[in-house]
Design goal:
This protein has 261 residues and is α/β, with parallel strands linked by helices. It has eleven helices and ten strands.
Amino acid sequence: MMQEKTVILEKCNGVATITLNRPATMNSLNRELVDEFTAILHEVQSDGDVKAVVLTGNGRAFCAGGDLSYLASLTEPAAARGFIADAGNIAAMIMNMEKPVVAMVNGVAAGAGFNLALACDIVYCAKTARFGQSFVKVGLVPDCGGMYLLPKVVGMHKAKELMFTADLIDAETALDLGVVNHVVDDALLPETVCQFAEKLANSAPIAIGLMKRVLNRSNNLDLETVLEFEADVQALCMQTADHKEGVAAFKEKRVPQFTGK
């Protein structure tokens, strides 16, 4: 019997939904999952019909971080470093992809799972979701970009508290800290995220991609550099068919039909 994939990809109405699919291990990361996840991200990035991406988990967890049994098998430092680097590259691919990525956190997001959610552009979570920087409980440091991303979201002092203590926070606390954009009743989460992702998919893809590119770098840039980037990308957008369609739709009081051209 063919082994079930550890990551599932579905495409519908311009939205690619990526589902981590190791529910028995709370979708924890092992080599197979990391490799399949990486391949799917490459596919989604290169598919011109995909305009928005949703990332979620199968079962009761979003992602519980690294698979401790698999990590224990990495007895050689080079193998351990290679795996952590490849897992971290997933966070980089999510951030560098010029398509909006929405995290649909359906349950526990711990360790690397927490940080993969942070790498996404928008985060929705279920009311029962929980978040934790659980690394220190097993004598590890945060990975998958956590030490870069979390301080930018919650501030340095709060990031240190969450990482040093590994305390779990609930959905409402995550909302208050800015970790998530919206908290939704568990039963309504899939439909709510689907509607939001389709809204993004119907927006202007070139403009969103350029916004994402500049915004992801803006914390490390001064005002003058950002203004230069804005002038460059705005001039580019003004030459697109999407801009012309948006202006025409505004004048004609109709919904624009963007094509990504």
